[in-house]
From TrEMBL:
Claim: Zinc is one of the keywords in the record: no
GO molecular function, one term: ATP hydrolysis activity
Name under which the protein is recorded: Cobalt/nickel transport system ATP-binding protein
Family per similarity comment: Belongs to the ABC transporter superfamily.
Localization (cell): Cell membrane
Amino acid sequence: MGPDVTGVGVPSLHVHDLAYAYPDGHQALYGVDLHIASGERVALLGPNGAGKTTLVLHLNGILTGGEGTVEVGGLPVEKRNLQEIRRRVGIVFQDPDDQLFMPTVAEDVAFGPANFGLRGPELRARVQEALHAVGMAEHGDRSPLHLSGGQRRRVALATVLACDPEILVLDEPSSNLDPVARRELAEVLLRLDRTMLMVTHDLPYALQLCPRSVVLDGGTVVADGPTRELLADDELLARHRLELPFGFVLA
């Protein structure tokens, strides 16, 4: 079971009994329950095909029509609330190219908040704040095409932070990063005072960044608890096709 959020106010994320089948009849989710308190950092683990992406796409209304309920900060994810939901749920995609398309870094970071109505000095301040948060404040005038992979990943994060989301959803944040860029991104994420859901196959990264993990397999939550305890359960990992890197030892 996950941590008890009773008495700590409205949870950042409340998913109850969420079930979803694709139009071809494939049932991707079977009654998922997930509750994340404000400020929690949670890793979402599971093998390919477990339903992780389907769950994430329900959090900001990209997918709708399933059974059950999804609420972000107490606001139901439904058509009439989608603009505010998409501000509250900031998804950082695995490939920065999905988020970086403007001529300069600053224009990319400004795009989201401008779309939500910010203008003038407030918009410029939001952009600088977001770039500063990811250690890229000196790169606003550069083209994203001229940045390293790690820098591009951090700018993609800044484009989401600039919208002041309630929840950060990170899709495989460490993928294709060299060790230094991986460490730099981890340092940025640990400094952020944000509720975080990190979808990852990188179990050591989950351990480093997320005190709690949820394992999803076959469209259902099969484990929910302290990350260190779950990763120490060899039988659980093997049963759900999760594996620590060769030679990795839990301290």
